Amino acid sequence: MDQQHRGAHASRSAGRDARRAARGNKRAGKLPYITRRLPVVELLSREALEIIEHNAETILEEIGVEFRRDPESLRLWRGAGADVRGERVHIPRGLARALLRSAPREFMLHARNPERNVRFGGDATVFSPVGGPPFVTDLDRGRRYGTLEDLENFIKLAHVAPAIHFSGGTAVEPMDIAPGKRHLDVMYAYFRLSDQGCEATPETPGHAADAVRMAELLFGEQFVDQHVVVLGNINSNSPLTFDGRMLGALREFAAHNQGTIVVPAVLAGAMGPVTAAGCMAEVLAETLAGMALTQIVRPGAPVIMGSFVGAVSMRTGAPTFGTPEATQMIFATAQLARRLGVPCRSGGSLCSSKVADAQAAYESAHTLLPTLLAGVNLVTHAAGWLEGGLVSGYEKFVMDVDQLAMMQVLAAGMDMSERGQALDAIREVGPGGHFLGCAHTQANFETAFYQSTIADYSSFEQWSTEGRTTAEQRANQVWKKMLAEYEDPGLDPARDEALLAYLAQRKVVLTDSVEEE
Amino acid sequence: MDQQHRGAHASRSAGRDARRAARGNKRAGKLPYITRRLPVVELLSREALEIIEHNAETILEEIGVEFRRDPESLRLWRGAGADVRGERVHIPRGLARALLRSAPREFMLHARNPERNVRFGGDATVFSPVGGPPFVTDLDRGRRYGTLEDLENFIKLAHVAPAIHFSGGTAVEPMDIAPGKRHLDVMYAYFRLSDQGCEATPETPGHAADAVRMAELLFGEQFVDQHVVVLGNINSNSPLTFDGRMLGALREFAAHNQGTIVVPAVLAGAMGPVTAAGCMAEVLAETLAGMALTQIVRPGAPVIMGSFVGAVSMRTGAPTFGTPEATQMIFATAQLARRLGVPCRSGGSLCSSKVADAQAAYESAHTLLPTLLAGVNLVTHAAGWLEGGLVSGYEKFVMDVDQLAMMQVLAAGMDMSERGQALDAIREVGPGGHFLGCAHTQANFETAFYQSTIADYSSFEQWSTEGRTTAEQRANQVWKKMLAEYEDPGLDPARDEALLAYLAQRKVVLTDSVEEE
């Protein structure tokens, strides 16, 4: 047993460093992406996973997937051995999985600050903020359309928040900019305001090409061809459909060796059946089809299996999150991706609530904790999500990043070093004593526990004197403080100029509305 | 693979029934206790558990545990082979564990309605409400001392709530009754107002004797000697101390073959070291000592290993919950109990928040979900807990029981039957379709998903029209509705009379203040 003690001590020293880094967030500032020291939770049995995989292959072969308005995709699929009838692609059992063998099990995304590089896959977990909402809300100004200023604020908050490892993409739609040109300002804001990595959310192949071109201006063409510097988020139109715009964007990213996330949005009862096992077979079929296409375009192109899962209320048809079915699907997604050997994106801090109240927190926590335990690699929408994704919330953002920091401590595992075992402390204090003053507590005082930025632990009397605030009200102060603390990471003037010149040039060419292919 | 399909279908039919029961809560009313169809999550490695176990035995042998003001306990320990020096009992390595071998791995607690019997241990999970707070709060009347009327209300709410399987004990202290006589009214309220099983929270051996005697009046002496009808909650005074009152109560329960829960309250940094591994060694040592004593008193007496875990804020010294350390300790407790072969009590819906806001929900969810995944058998404080256990909240109670019902669905596992696989639905709808109108959705419409009683899924516009309520405000309506729906389960008049006569007789004998031994 003493042997074991020593063994544990040695093998866990890396874990201790991770925990120290996680705990010492006040001094260390940003935290590195998570290298998990927890076992992954395998919620579904192997038998259940095999049934889902079998059904996904049945769907691919017998029902097929529509690749709409993109003859090039159909041509590629035909060449790869699929049975293409019109726009319906029937993929023989096992073909998509075989094609996917060339995809990397894990890959690095390079940020312009190398310390902010993130790894996708394996034992890595990366937290990324909300993406996509057209509205924003905060306690001062209420719910309103998002603007470029709001987007910039969310990028800054993500830059400052210790446990946000990756900036994500389009934290809020800048509705004050014409839709046809918006993607340029969005991409520029991410590249300019933070040195973390980021994501493009292309709506057309042209958007994707602009994102890749801007990345080349920032990183250099040769670097981009050899390194992943941007992820492209590719949504399918569930059930079992990809449209031409998304397909073009997918091909653009894959051809340039940039990462893609193939992610169906399946709400059980709407875009999928009312059962989790049925939805997962559909999700797996869709992602297999989309991910395999990236490998036909360029074998070895990095790709992430995504699932965005929830259910619709059978009463109102509205999306619901944090339900048991969604929890099961998050675990299932991570398990299926591991069996496929590709990184996984799922979960987040999803909720249906309109405000950052208890409903929002219950739903978000019941999404986030499963996400971490499942071993999801890229956690999009990890902070700021409200109202089923219609709204990015300032208060919700900082409440969520507080939870993310706690998840990062949890992921570091239990400290089994001598410090963690604390046997001397127990000896020193003895029966009936108190640990606050003992030597061990004093030595570990500052780094003992993560200090929540949001939670109030004061007495009822003190809390009453101080205005009986809710978590949401305290969060209102926190995001303002974080914005005030933001420091411009700077950008090489030549590159900045090149980016701005590209923007100006493209804005002359593009129309205000989104181009049709 | 087809073979597997059929196998899965057959083996999961029981799971489907459980899921149906869980989903159909509106019609079925009360849910049976949970028989888990999820794997337990083993968060700690075997190596880590062995270190904790080794350290616990070191603590028992070298440091020892104080058994204060109870010569009978010291006599029993001496007889069992411990090294007793004054009130300090040094328990040789392995002795406590060996004594505990006679304890049952699982046992049944009999309620006066046999349909409400609950099983503790194995794959069973039982949800039980908050216990112990002196205060109550609701949105109408605010925070105030609890009364007998409040206690009765919480017993009624627990009786009505579908996913509360066991009434627990002293949901709120009736501060309007003299402390020396209070336990009689509390016990009577539980026995009279609900036909679910319940718990006694004795502060003295006399309280414990009264609880057992009242149970005998309700169930019959012979039945009580052969069956567990009440649990006694036995708190140690951490670190490593039991006081005479608790020890007397423990011996009383064990002697009568009633169940005990031996539960240290260890907040890391106060009653335990600032590390999770240190606290767990202490918790294990304390529970081993207390549980082993039950077996010395009466081999085979049912006993549950409890842990109530949290941490103190290093800034204010106040208790904190829902933190990563607490989450780890819940998983560890369940794992250690499984290795010991005794049922386990831990977790709940713990929080520090003064109100049922997002802080309360985040903290509660990060306690509850680990509790379920860890495979905890008895979940005390699963509903209504606020402010570190000082307050029982009416709104919090109904918000929590909504979450408990979802946990019950989660515990039923993923439906892998043909219905769950839903391949026909995917065929019927095909690429680009919608599932709402398909035959499979129509057939499973009513039982598809659990319907939250608290969450609001309406549009922003509708929600605005309806007063922009928070979850807490909606919960205020729900508990009133639940109280209105309460139906008296009735009680055999002869037994009721006997209980009331006992109460009257004891109240003449007892003084207003709690008896000293």
Distance between the termini of chain A: 68 Å
Give Rg of chain A in angstroms. 24 Å
Largest interface: A-B, 129 and 130 residues
- Basic shape of chain A: globular
Instruction: Bin the helical content of chain A.
Output: 40-55%
| Mean pLDDT across residues of chain A | 93
Number of helices of chain A: 21
Tally of strands of chain A: 21
Strand order of the largest sheet of chain A: 10-11-13-15-18
Task: Tell me the strand percentage band of chain A.
Answer: 5-15%
Low-pLDDT ranges of chain A: 1-15, 23-28
User: Helices and strands of chain A: which structural class?
Assistant: alpha/beta
Largest sheet of chain A: 5 strands, parallel
Oligomer: homodimer
Question: What would you say this structure looks like, in words?
Answer:
The structure is a homodimer of 517-residue chains. Chain A has 517 residues and is of the alpha/beta class. Chain A has 21 helices and 21 strands. In chain A, strands 10-11-13-15-18 form a five-stranded parallel β-sheet. In chain A, helix 2 (13-23) runs antiparallel to helix 15 (394-411) and helix 7 (148-160) packs parallel to helix 8. The model of chain A is unreliable at 1-15 and 23-28 (pLDDT under 50). Chains A and B meet through helix 1, helix 4, helix 12, strand 17 and helix 13 of A and helix 1, helix 4, helix 12, strand 17 and helix 13 of B.
